[in-house]
Amino acid sequence: MLQRIILIVVLLAGTISAEEGMWTFDNPPTQLIQQKYHFVLTKEWLDHVRLSSVRLNDGGSGSFVSPHGLVLTNHHVARGQLQKNSTAQHDYIKNGFYASTPEQEMKAQDLEANVLVSTEDVTGRIQAALKGTESPEQQFRARESIIAEIERESTQKTGLRSDVVTLYQGGEYWLYRYKKYTDLRIVFAPEEQAAFFGGDPDNFTYPRYDLDMALFRVYENGKPIDSPNYLKWNPKGADEGDLVFVSGHPGSTQRLDTLAQLLFERDSALPIALPIYRDRITVLQRFSASSAEHEREAGSTIFFLQNTVKVLTGELQGLENPRIIANKKADEEKFRAAVTSNPELKEKYGTAWDDIAAAEQKMTSRLKETYFHSMDSQLNSLAVDIVEYVTEIKKPDGERLPGFHESQLESLRLRLFSPAPIYPDMEIARITGALHRDLNALGPDDPFLKIVLRGRTPEQAAAELVNGSKLQDPQVRKALVEGGQQAVGASTDSMIVLARKLDPIHRELIKWTQDNVESVEQRSGEQLGRARFALYGKSTYPDATVTLRLSYGQMKGYPMNGTVAPAKTTYYGLYDRAFSFNDQPPFNLPQRYRDGMKNLDLTTPLDFVSTNDVVGGNSGSPVLNKDAEVVGLIFDGNIESRLGDYVYDIESNRSIAVHTAAMTEALRKMYGAGKLVQELTGGAAGQP
Amino acid sequence: MLQRIILIVVLLAGTISAEEGMWTFDNPPTQLIQQKYHFVLTKEWLDHVRLSSVRLNDGGSGSFVSPHGLVLTNHHVARGQLQKNSTAQHDYIKNGFYASTPEQEMKAQDLEANVLVSTEDVTGRIQAALKGTESPEQQFRARESIIAEIERESTQKTGLRSDVVTLYQGGEYWLYRYKKYTDLRIVFAPEEQAAFFGGDPDNFTYPRYDLDMALFRVYENGKPIDSPNYLKWNPKGADEGDLVFVSGHPGSTQRLDTLAQLLFERDSALPIALPIYRDRITVLQRFSASSAEHEREAGSTIFFLQNTVKVLTGELQGLENPRIIANKKADEEKFRAAVTSNPELKEKYGTAWDDIAAAEQKMTSRLKETYFHSMDSQLNSLAVDIVEYVTEIKKPDGERLPGFHESQLESLRLRLFSPAPIYPDMEIARITGALHRDLNALGPDDPFLKIVLRGRTPEQAAAELVNGSKLQDPQVRKALVEGGQQAVGASTDSMIVLARKLDPIHRELIKWTQDNVESVEQRSGEQLGRARFALYGKSTYPDATVTLRLSYGQMKGYPMNGTVAPAKTTYYGLYDRAFSFNDQPPFNLPQRYRDGMKNLDLTTPLDFVSTNDVVGGNSGSPVLNKDAEVVGLIFDGNIESRLGDYVYDIESNRSIAVHTAAMTEALRKMYGAGKLVQELTGGAAGQP
User: Fold this and answer.
1) A173 partner at 20 to 30 Å CA-CA among A124, A126, A355, B327?
2) Rounded distance between C-alpha atoms, residue B366 and residue B369, angstroms
3) Mean pLDDT of the region B302-313
4) Domain at A5-112+182-255+543-686, CATH class
């Protein structure tokens, strides 16, 4: 349920500043780009870029960069898959990985790639289905039902993954169809210390010196696919002042949540969520300290949590900035006055703001349960999914819980049956930590805790739950799912037993939230979306929704901490920062970089910044020049862009990318991966 | 009069945080250092460091670093003297300077060095002289008179430069005696582009990559002096975590001005001063653009002005920070309550805050004249000094204008008769700019402007004034001063004629300010100083007063812009920043650094930061280790320390220094100055 704080989607108010926006491909900012940069986006350009862009289910973006299915993304997007393939003997995160022959390419355990092949406006169909409904709850069910129907119908007809996407707060609904790939193989990843040099301190900051790249190859039927839509590699990369594009999948923004929604996040949600994340880090750091193998096991989770804390801290600071709240308030008052002064709009949409505010107020009454009824456990999550799965698939599609609709089942199964390792010691540590946290927050009489603990200490409960479960074996999970309600009902697996007992509590909270909060947010969101179209037309972009977007901008430095940040960094800077910190972690050089320095041209551009409007989820997006050639690889935003969920500021908002010159130089001179460079640059036939 | 905004001295309230403070050598923070660092400051250590420390009249600090009178300071402190020795043919600022033989050492034209040889508490004598006086004006005159007497008496008795220094807001007065040197010769300076790499943008920021050093040698009677008190050179420099000391001459702080004084600066003085400085820069940049020679001529003045604007902008931002003002208010209320609740203190000192507030209020009525009755002209300043000089020296010492007391005359004459070049074209440009500025602010009927313009345009007046004056010739100035009132009264030199006419206006404003503002600030300041001693004893340090102070601290990084700044930088970083900006000014490398890179060990520490509490005036101060060896050279503070005039914050306040390893490496490998390194390190006999 934690996503609530970042999944609410609302419509943009006010005017758009140059470079701002994550535009859908059906409504690109053609005029704005032409006015400022005298460049004309064509349909061919857009189609080619769209079909070369990839969404990865580990929360990032990517792109095809060769005709043989080679996909470029970030090391930090690939990190989870590297972790899942690593063992105590082979640590691909620490040492990197390079498959110098096709045979060495290493299967990712549960990675899915999506390519957006078509989109279709289905707003009319959904609005029609809502006719005759009255209450938000009725509308919610009707909407769920028609969406599931559209998705299922499309899946059956096309065989493609089909998602209905809510845009403009519900002002529009679109059906997005994706070609889906589930066999991705790891081709190349540098040492984490090269990809993530500077660690958590440097994360979300600039100047930066990171080679945050990884390469996968997409297979079908045991062979690399042909990918005729791929982006050409430009090893010279971008120069200061160049117009550049980013095509990727930004996760979520709240640029025009209502004021009530932002204040809910600031005053209620984030103050609960942040300490939980911090405590989870503490628990895992303690676990890591107990052995080198534990440290390896916990690495990716700590990385993810630290990243999240830095993001949420930035969001909270943004919301605590009086200027941001004042601007939001002024925008909302203006919009509201425009609606109220028009009798027809007022009649249709005038109560939306107050309705949302009342729903947010209601939500606060059950926020503690929402956040603290949690085990922080992979085994528990799998058990909950299995218990729900066998019940849900018996229901009509439109009535199922979110995540169990027909069109979502294949992706769900990929995750449920993933062979990725689960570490029992770490599970025990995490569950123990979570239960202590829950106890402190809720007290021992909480119904959830009573069921979980049954008089045991958190330590005892965690150990017995983990040791009494066989769910780390994907075959066991498969057998339960295939055995259906009967097998699950009869299971004595400790985690399944617990999930069965918690099921009623869990379902009650989901239903309560849907009926009292989400349904209101959806209906009122739709009203605001339509009100805005009525007043301003479709002159803007929708908030981010993990769907494909195009942003434009310029490679450009910015004012920073009293001076100016350069548009790019060089390899010299990597060595400067390492030696400035006496080569101590997280600023230590990989051995390869210490030994191989003399082979590198240190003047090579390493990372660079541009004014493109990107947020989390854009990680791994290609940076493109006018010719749709890859000139960089988005991997972060600067600290000044942490307010990006709420506002975009061209003065100092910057996306950070790895420069293609640095990737080319490193592949060739540091990693002996000349064959990959050949494939990227189209010289000779490339690797496959 | 611009100094008013930075010369008011008040006493520190509240408690002192670790590392805070610029301590006088009579009251060093021995206990604080012992507690935190387990190091005991001895009298021998303090005496040795004091006698090795040098004050330079160009506004900086320095230290003896060889037994042969070699003085280390910053390039930016030496910049004025380098400019004065440069010509269209020999540009020592652009190209640097190195005297590889004693004969090549080049005389600075008007540089004075002072070494503090003794100090004496004269508070009692001054308090005695004020007995029987009543009004602030009477006290002001009595104080001026006794101070002049003490200084003259000491000068006559010892032959030493003798200054009475106001400490603790007038809680104490000390007589400081200096050995004075007026023959300094330039031995070494790097190219400005090495010393000031990054220019105005990087100024007052960190990380930094500057070799901001210069070496002078002190001569007497045509020979290098013996300087038995000198600081040993440690070429390894400081390491992260080391305890380090700074001995230098911080200019001024207002850490405990009353709230009224700070608000006066924030709301009245700085809003007038800053635009004037900015306009002066614009005028000179326009002048610079007209030819390469003009650019060379204006360089040092633009440098100084840009530096000042960055300082004052920082001060204003500090004062606009509500937290700073709130803290100040709370401190003052606490102090005031303590005074008011004690009947004796209340009777003696209780009105001080209101008296100061009333004086500041009065000052605002004449602030425009104070700032705009200015010609921004060296010739005009010299003319004013000459006209006043011949009148003032006829008066009893105690009744003269500030700057004309007997003990100050030798230093004044050094400046008046300096052979440093004055550029007529630049004078015309500056005066024209100033008069336009004055006209805009005051209108054509202002009495000052009427006298200056006499119906002419600013362009005409400026040209006629400059062309009608011979004052750029130091012999002409000398003849006027030696000819006394008669010669000056008979002079038809345009600048002298103007200064005579403006003299009454000028004197009236000085007297009005003394009688209505300065006298009140001094009396009330003394009251507050005494009140604080009565309440808290002498547990603290006085605000900075361009006198010798000791600060202690630790070489240490700090949190910066979302990540951490390292304790030091390396030569790698110089090349990174240069290539990051495509080697474009102000981030271009000197040719020597492009050609000679392969000779340098790029891992050598270049600049470093420490928690020492320093402000403007500390430029050129040595950074010392426990053994009083030089390990660095202060040249700046970070952007976070720009509030240092008002507060010190150990979390992010940092001084910035050049590392001795970088200086040693550069002298040896870049500049072929191995002989200098030998002299510094005491290997062989050194240069002289």
Assistant:
1) A355
2) 6
3) 90
4) mainly beta
